[in-house]
Amino acid sequence: MSKVLVSDPIDSAGIDILSQVAQVSVQTKLPPEELVKIIPEYDALMVRSGTRVTQEVIDAGTHLKIIGRAGVGVDNIDIPAATRRGIVVVNSPEGNTTAAAEHAIALMMALSRCIPDANHSVKENRWERKKFMGSEVYKKTLGVVGLGKIGSHVASVAKAMGMKLLAYDPFITAERAEQLGCRLVDLDFLFQEADYITLHIPRTPETTNLINAESIGKMKPTARIINCSRGGIIDEAALAVALEKGQIAGAALDVFETEPLGESPLRDLGANMILTPHLGASTEEAQVNVAVDVAEQIRDVLLGLPARSAVNIPGLNPNVLEQLKPYLQLAETLGNLVGQIAGGRIDKLEVRLQGDLATNQSQPLVVASLKGLLSNALRERVNYVNASIEAKERGIRVIETKDASVGDYSGSLHLSARGSLGEHSVTGALLSDGEIRITNLDGFPINVPPSNYMLFTLHRDMPGIIGRIGMLLGNFNVNIASMQVGRKIVRGNAVMALSLDDPLPDGILQEITGIPGIGDAYTVNL
Ligand SMILES: NC(=O)C1=CN([C@@H]2O[C@H](COP(=O)(O)OP(=O)(O)OC[C@H]3O[C@@H](n4cnc5c(N)ncnc54)[C@H](O)[C@@H]3O)[C@@H](O)[C@H]2O)C=CC1
Ligand SMILES: O=C(O)CCC(=O)C(=O)O
């Protein structure tokens, strides 16, 4: 019989499901070295956010087939390490959406009416009615940062409470925001106008310290911030200083840079700061939902069936997968690339299978393209199982076409996306050794391998341009690994594709587009 280790508190409904197919051992609060010691015995591991599933744990788990996260965020699991070891990682993308959204609303209300401190004062035998003067949320403006599942639910509740709604989400269309009663605006506008700001985004390099001294400086003195998403999105030291000085009116945090929260200036603040110990998902209902959702997937995988919310393994027919594997990687890379060039808020994606590739089933390649496209917004949360649904929910119209005529490559894949920076296209193919080549950008023939850091320019084909770009990159200490120019006619329009050894520093794009003859420039990180 299989063995499952449950290393965080999980609702008994989940344990009952696991017990149908496995011997279940519940051992919470294990020290990391103890977890590493016992994990080799187990076929599956089920956790919440308390257990850190590090590379060391994964490497020691020689029998592990699946790791289940009873919740949304999988940032406590080393996904690349699990993927490399072929271990499926599953989560429950929706099981605690309502709970987290309701906690954000509860914190907003508690902050507005000083409920925690007023409660404490009465319990201490005081009756301080003047001290705890509140303010109403009715007709106030709520700025929702991240209009995904939780942000959307918060928006709909806040709307029913008579709030005006602004939203910032670079990967959501204005139409989708409108359907939710929100006006999609840029981040600075939201910071300046909102009376309440609620964060519902993943922690990524772009969102780390999104709320800092500078962004707080743009807010109203009456603004209140709520964070029920992830620690590290707010610079806690800067927030403490701003609240101390009365630069903004309050903040309520459920999540922290380091959990459990250690020594922190946040603890010294008064009624203008509410702290909860990562309780967003802590409702009886959500805990049953996530426990059942994840336990069912662990049961299925242990029985040899596919998982419905795998974060790292495509949920497609294994035979089709094996055959298309190299092309799936091509589709993901091209989707990621065209998504970045088209600039977010994509509302249309065309996927064209060309040449020999046209004889294949298009659906897996469409899913892989969408996965690559959406990974800019959703990171590891988008997978082969949910990419199409996520795209539909985001209002992305997908067009699949096939063209059997053979061009320079026997089979190639062409993607065209329309986003906030206009409509752009990219074509790619595989070399005989399986290596990916980008063969066309916006109609211009090129031949470059994808690389971590890339720069593309659309420019006039005229003397001096290449040199000026090379010089500019040199001045910023950016090393060029390879460079290619594609043009259709001499001294007409052209495309330049550069693979770089270093990321492009902030501000350089503006300098590049300032060079006479350069039309547009795009950075791409793959
Ligand atoms: N406090 C708690 O106990 C809980 C916290 N969470 C956290 O809440 C957050 C939101 O979860 P869901 O709504 O389920 O995720 P989701 O994936 O449905 O939505 C996230 C949204 O953020 C947007 N986004 C990505 N990068 C952005 C950026 N730079 N600026 C603005 N928007 C950006 C995405 O387009 C997406 O619409 C996650 O960080 C999740 O881990 C989730 C459940 C419980
Ligand atoms: O397990 C928990 O309580 C944390 C929930 C959470 O943060 C998540 O699902 O992302």
Automatic annotation (TrEMBL):
InterPro entries: ACT-like_dom_sf, ACT_dom, ASB_dom_sf, D-2-hydroxyacid_DH, D-isomer_2_OHA_DH_cat_dom, D-isomer_DH_CS, D-isomer_DH_CS1, D-isomer_DH_NAD-bd. Pfam families: 2-Hacid_dh (PF00389), 2-Hacid_dh_C (PF02826), ACT (PF01842), PGDH_inter (PF19304). Its EC number is 1.1.1.95. GO terms for biological process: L-serine biosynthetic process. It catalyses: (R)-2-hydroxyglutarate + NAD(+) = 2-oxoglutarate + NADH + H(+); (2R)-3-phosphoglycerate + NAD(+) = 3-phosphooxypyruvate + NADH + H(+). Residues 454-526 form the ACT domain. Pathway: Amino-acid biosynthesis; L-serine biosynthesis; L-serine from 3-phospho-D-glycerate: step 1/3. Keywords: Amino-acid biosynthesis, NAD, Oxidoreductase, Serine biosynthesis. GO terms for molecular function: NAD binding; phosphoglycerate dehydrogenase activity. It comes from the Bacteria. Belongs to the D-isomer specific 2-hydroxyacid dehydrogenase family. Catalyzes the reversible oxidation of 3-phospho-D-glycerate to 3-phosphonooxypyruvate, the first step of the phosphorylated L-serine biosynthesis pathway. Also catalyzes the reversible oxidation of 2-hydroxyglutarate to 2-oxoglutarate. This is D-3-phosphoglycerate dehydrogenase. It comes from Lusitaniella coriacea LEGE 07157. The lineage of its organism: Bacteria, Bacillati, Cyanobacteriota, Cyanophyceae, Spirulinales.
